[in-house]
Amino acid sequence: MHASNRRFSLLPIYLTLSLFAALTLLPFAWMVAAALKSQDDFFTSIFLPPGSGPFGVGWERLTLANFARLFTEFPVGRAMLNSIFFSTVTSALATAACAMGGYALAKFSFKGRALLTGAVLGALIVPTSLLIAPTYKLLWQLGLLNSYAGLILPAIAPAFGVFLFRQAMLNSVPRELLEAARIDGCGELRIFFTVVVPLIRPMIGAFMLITFLGAWNNFIGPQIVLQDAEAFPLSVAINNLRGLHGTDYGLIMAGTLLSIAPVMCLFLLLQKEFIAGLTSGAVKG
Amino acid sequence: MFSPGAWLILSGAVASSLVFLLWPAPARSGRAFWIFSPPNVKLYEAALDNWNAQHPRPAEQTHLALIHYQALERRLVAAFTSDAPVADLVETEGLLMARLFGGPVEDVGFVDLTDRIRAEGLNDAIVPAAFSQWTTRGHIFGLPHDLNPCLLAYRADIVEAAGIDVGQIETWNDFRRVLAPLIQDFDGDGRPDRFLLNFWESQRDLADALLLQAGGELFDQNDQLTLASEANARTLAALVGWLAGPERFCVDAPEFTAGGDRMRLDGTVIASVLPDWQAGTWKNYIPGLAGKVKLMPLPAWTRGGLRTTVWGGTAVGIAKAAPNVELSWKLAKHLYLSPQIAEQLFRTTCILSPVKAHWELPVYHQPDAYFSGQRIGEMFIAQAPHVPARRSSPYRQLAMERVTSALIALKAYAVAHDRFDSAFLLPEARRLLAEQQQDLAARIARNVLYRLP
Amino acid sequence: MRAFDRRTWIPWMFSAPFLVLFATFTVWPLLQSLLLSVQQTFGPKRTVFIGLSNFAFILRDPLFWQALGNTAIYTLGAVCIQISTSLMLALLLNRPGLRGRSFFRLVFFAPSLVGLVFVGVLFTLLFQKRTGLINSGLHAIIPAWDPEFAWTDNHVMASLLLASTWLYAGFNMIYFLAALQNVSREQLEAADLDGAGAWGRFWHVVLPEIRPVLSFVTLLSVIGSFQLFELPWVLLNNSAGPANRGLTVVMYLYQTGFLVGDLGYASAIGWVLGLILVLAALAQTRLARNEET
How far apart are CA C91 and CA C173, in angstroms? Predict the structure, then answer.
């Protein structure tokens, strides 16, 4: 009685959730349909082209030609490799730098800590557009233009990363544990890797995903710093499909699907950590 | 210690780094040529292969790089302000290049081509109006790629089925009068579902083109702002009647959007102002219109007035800082003046070469099945000598946006007073333009480095 | 003594990689932009010191104030709509006995995985006047609906809020979902025994528990909203929209720097925006403190 009552009371919740899910998924459904249609059919129907097949859909008019074109006419293989390199390296290095920086800010008291924390908080509100021109000049002076180093190095030290890790450390790393390890004679690096890192594992997962996503979807930055087309990541290759003169929607949507697939898989793998990690960075300690 | 996903990222980082060490991206030596227009990639690649075969020295090899317009914009502005290198050659669009003119002429980051163009007689070989967009204070900084005359494209199938002869149309007033029977409400909701022209107050570039056709300009020959000219006020006052009120005949069917393309296919909009490059885009991206559309000269603002206007434009600039300017100049001429490339350009993009001698090429005189068998090359050539000149200014884009703002405000004023005749709207049009002119002029005056003669 | 020594250099060792890169790629360019804000420049060679003229001009620049107004309206809307949507989704998903929770979670988070390019293409298609999914759908259902209802012309902020809610609500939902897991079942059941309704339970038990996360998410939303640039830029086809209705402060900064080439004035705008945000943050902390005491 009680159970069926509860199931009944869940019905409006399922309905609401399904409605929102449908609204969220609608654009994705449209994208998949668009990727499978030819340029002619693109305009004749909103989703799948009408026809005589099951459900009144012209299934025979669907085509994988957009994907075939993507792989034959554009060097997406190289672009994919570039993307993986750029995104994974940025994500790994940024996580390392921010985790260590956040650890220092949260768990040590030293001269200049207040100043540094203030600078990090202040940098949270800096609009990136403000920095484009001075950074370009700097990269040129350092000889980093047209190299992956010029793209990755500035992305390794985001202020919000240190901020998130600082919060996570304050929340989930007890000072007593560190003191105990020190009394046991552990080296500082060993303490960091064996005591601290396991405690903030969720934050590491979450931040890795966030930085990976940011790098993976960044399509303007690489084109400013990198100059050779061979070095462009997937995001740029996809965006170049959509030039100033012409719009081949099927091809763009096929490319977008191709670029979403890896991050979708990554999210599935990191889902648990991601949720736990975000909170550990959020709650005030 | 880490989750599977984190391990995946870490191993991905290590593995891809290894791949990069073992299989580095081929390093590009030699010279760079940046372009932003995708159709031009194929066009130039063949020509550059040819060029590179003739110039085998590594330092003379030239490579093409396609860069998104927005990235090119950021790169050029950032590079020119910090003395960082740009490519040897940069193919760019008019408004973008003009932005780099905001200081003393001698400090513009591109090579001043004026003397070379005069010495080699290019100013006679190429239609003069083609240079106007690349010229600041009398100095030319770009070799023009195109001229971009405009024609009117219309749904010949619909117009002819209604028994209408477009030959009677000479002015925009004729256009409205002759085609008015086509404006219809098909679904009975009390609103028309078919309109005569694709234009809306938010279409900044087309508003600019229509202003130019009516003899208005945003800057005068000395690059001084003339936003609030009487011609512009008259044009704006007339345009409001196109967009609202009892005689409205325009609808918003923006180019490069799926929705706009669908309206062209469905016949929601009959006619569009079509620059040559747009004809190429239509052919490539709206195949469904093939055989249904025809071109004709634009209706004029007054009898005997201009039957064309100009929209868009691309040129190549040579970076001052890059070594071997001479070689770049040679390559620019090789690409832009060659009859073979002009022919290819028209075939792939419908863009007419601004070089008058090329207009004899057979490619311009062949019937085009997409445009119902018309010889569209000849039609563009017939209008090419009349293309209006545009004065270039680093503030041109701002000025164009101010026109849009004034038009929007004027339409709101007309709707509020329920009066759409230009005589009533003209005083308000003058006032709105004067307001915009004053504000923009104050901003231009703040740039102490941009001084006009 | 040894322990003391260790303590002084250890934190520097840990923060060194971050510190070096932060100083090089954030602090140094920031200082450069501060320098730029008092100059008129053209190219590398021409630099004129113009003092505080840029800052003085901002005060009487109608476009800046319009941009600030637009940004403030957007921020208010984003904080109200996005956060309440996210919180509602999280509350629904947190119901005990619900099946398919991880499916729904993935669905709602999915928009965060796609890039802005895609969002631009997609929402232009949704918002188009006659042919957009929204207008053509509404017109089919309600014939009186004007198919030329111009979302991105006359209702820029509404369109932006719709797009940004689609894009970001799922991300914030995850924050709330995680926070809700900390709310203990015992407390909820105790509230049930007290006869508190669903609303009372939310107000007296859930809300106090998730308040820290709520204020954190709000802070992030405010900062993010004030920096809004790329979404409207993509959505409005690389412009501020008709009559600058979609102009935001950072967009104005970008336009000034890269469309007009006036990096000095652009930098000044950036610094004024920073100042406004700092003042807002200080005001918020003070308010929060007053609330506590």
Answer: 9
Burial of C89 by CB count in 10 Å (0-12 exposed, 13-18 middle, 19+ buried)?
buried
Is residue B425 within 8 A of residue B410, CB to CB? The reply is yes
Rounded CA Rg of chain A: 24
Helices C28-36/A132-141 angle, 10° precision: 120
Tell how strand B89-93 and strand B31-35 pair up.
Answer: parallel
Tokens of A23: 């609204």
Q: What is the largest CA-CA distance in chain C?
A: 83
- The Cα B147–Cα B345 span in angstroms is 13
Q: Pairing state of beta strands B139-140 and B135-136?
A: antiparallel
Do residues A188 and C6 touch, judged by C-beta distance below 8 A? yes
Tell me the mean pLDDT in the region B71-86: 85
Minimum-distance CB partner of B281 among A228, A230, A245: A245
Through-space distance between the first and last CA atoms of chain A, rounded to whole angstroms: 44
d(CA B307, CA B299): 6
Q: How many CB atoms lie within 10 A of CB B97?
A: 26
Could you give the angle at which helices A76-107 and B4-22 cross, rounded to 10 degrees? 120
Decide if C28 and A138 are in contact by the 8 Å CB cutoff: yes
Residue pair A211/A131 in contact (Cβ under 8 Å)? The answer is: no
Amino acid at B330: K
What 3-state DSSP class applies to B316?
A: strand
Whole-angstrom Cα distance, residue B56 to residue B41? 21
Question: Is C282 an 8 Å CB contact of chain A?
Answer: no
Are C12 and A10 within 8 A, CB to CB?
no
In this prediction the ipTM stands at: 0.90
pTM over 0.80: yes
Strand positions, DSSP E, B231-306? 250-251, 269-275, 293-296
At A241 the three-state DSSP class reads helix
Neighbours of chain B (3+ CB pairs under 8 A): A, C
Q: Given the structure tokens 């010029």, which residue do they identify?
A: A150
pLDDT tens sequence across B12-34: 899 999 888 887 766 667 889 99
Low-confidence residues of chain A: pLDDT under 50: 1-4, 244-245, 284-285
Helical H runs in B131-249? 156-161, 172-179, 204-213, 230-243
Distance (Å) of CA A186 to CA A103, A189, C14, C199: 17, 8, 16, 51
Report the residue from B9, B77, B285 with minimal CB separation from A248: B285
CA distances from C62 to B161, C246, C252 (A): 52, 14, 12
* Whether A35 contacts A254, CB under 8 Å: yes
Contact call for residues A73 and A137 (beta carbons, < 8 A): no
For chain C, percent of residues with pLDDT exceeding 70:
94
Q: Which of 198-227 (A) contact C at CB < 8 A? A: 213, 216-217, 219
| Distance of residue C137 Cα from the nearest chain B Cα, in angstroms | 14
